[in-house]
Amino acid sequence: MCRFPLLCKIIHTTHVEHFALGYVSVLLLVAFGVWQVEPGITTFADGLWYCFAASTTVGFGDIVAVTVAGRILTVILVLYGIFIIALIPGVMVNYFVEFNKIRYNESLLMFMDRLEHLDTLSKEELREISENVRNFRGK
């Protein structure tokens, strides 16, 4: 069960989980590849640590790629990581923008509908519309 329902809805609606799963898969594959080709990386955990440091562009320098194959794998991972790290927040921000735009349009349509039926509204409803217009102009 998700503790953050709105975040889970955004992730599910935008299919961001596919990108995140792809990123984790590439991270694990490159970690395995680096572990196989780099002489200074003796365990898979070290390969994973190296890939994490490289993909986040932190690059601690405690483990470095010295072979051509290791450097090529690192470049691929870093470029993919930058793409994914930039893509996921962009998708989520776009979702919020579209959600707010839809909500704004719906409220505008409701307001226009009420204006079209002014002759059927009570004095309280007319007063409420008038107050909403004053508040809107005050902003």
Number of separate domains: 1
Main β-sheet, in a few words?
none
* Count of alpha/pi helices: 5
Topology-level CATH name:
Helix Hairpins
- Report the helical percentage: over 70%
- Low-confidence spans: none
The helix-strand sequence is HHHHH
Say what oligomer this is: single chain
Q: Please identify, by name, the CATH architecture.
A: Orthogonal Bundle
In total, how many beta strands? 0
How much β-strand is present in the residues?
Answer: under 5%
Structure description:
The chain is an all-alpha fold and 139 residues long. It has one domain: Helix Hairpins (Orthogonal Bundle), CATH 1.10.287.70. It contains 5 helices and no strands. Helix 2 packs across helix 3 and helix 2 (16-37) runs antiparallel to helix 4 (68-116). It is rod-shaped.
Which keywords apply here?
0% strand, 139 residues, 78% helix, Helix Hairpins, mainly alpha, single chain
Quick gist of this model?
With 139 residues, the protein is mostly helical.
